[in-house]
Each structure stands twice: as structure tokens, then as C-alpha cells.
Amino acid sequence: QVQLRESGGGSVQAGGSLRLSCAGNAGGMSMAWFRQAPGKEREGVAAIDAASSSPYTYADSVKGRFTISRDSAKDTLYLQMNSLQPDDTGTYYCAAHFTGGVNRLSPNYRHWGRGTQVNVSS
Fold it and tell me: Using 50, 70 and 90 to split pLDDT, how confident is the model at 55?
């Protein structure tokens, strides 16, 4: 049973930074970060393949500001978020094991965490 647990969310002002972590037993799996704002659909933010090989996949809205990485020894996925904007507000989820398709930012993942809240104020 794969269990994922996100942490690192919080409240910051625009321009600030946060680093999210996702701890779990998803070693050797492709993984991704998603987010969902109130009243909006869940959207893919960043994805990394099972081998952690570049290039990684990013949504256009976060390119140049967010960085996905993983520490295989700690079985932890990270999302470094810089230059945060109010539009980045939402619940952030990590996911593991991409089940198919072309777009790794589509929600075709088998395992999901419960999310961590990020609030960015202007």
C-alpha cells in the first residue's frame, strides 16, 4: 500500500517562497504535484519520471518559479516554490504512479496524498 503525506504548506505574502515535501513509499514510481483552488479543477503543476531523469514537466504558469525534485534515499518528493503569487493559492497534492497517456500533468495517477494548503496574499 502506497501512502503519501504532504507537508510544508502555509501562508506567505506575494513574492515569498515555500518548499513542499511529500514523504512516502513511492520509490521507483513516477510522481507529480497537483493543486486545486476553490471552485476550480485540479491542475498538474510539475511531474518527474520514475528515474528522476530530466527534462521534468512543468505547467506553463509555474515555469521558472517552481522546481520539482526527489531524494530517493529519503523517499521524499519536493516542490520548491519561489516568487509565489496569489493565483498559486490552493491545496497542493502529490501523486505517484502515472497510469498512462501522453500528458504527465493529467490526473492519471494511482496514488494520492491528502494535500497541504498554500495561501498567498497580495
Answer: confident
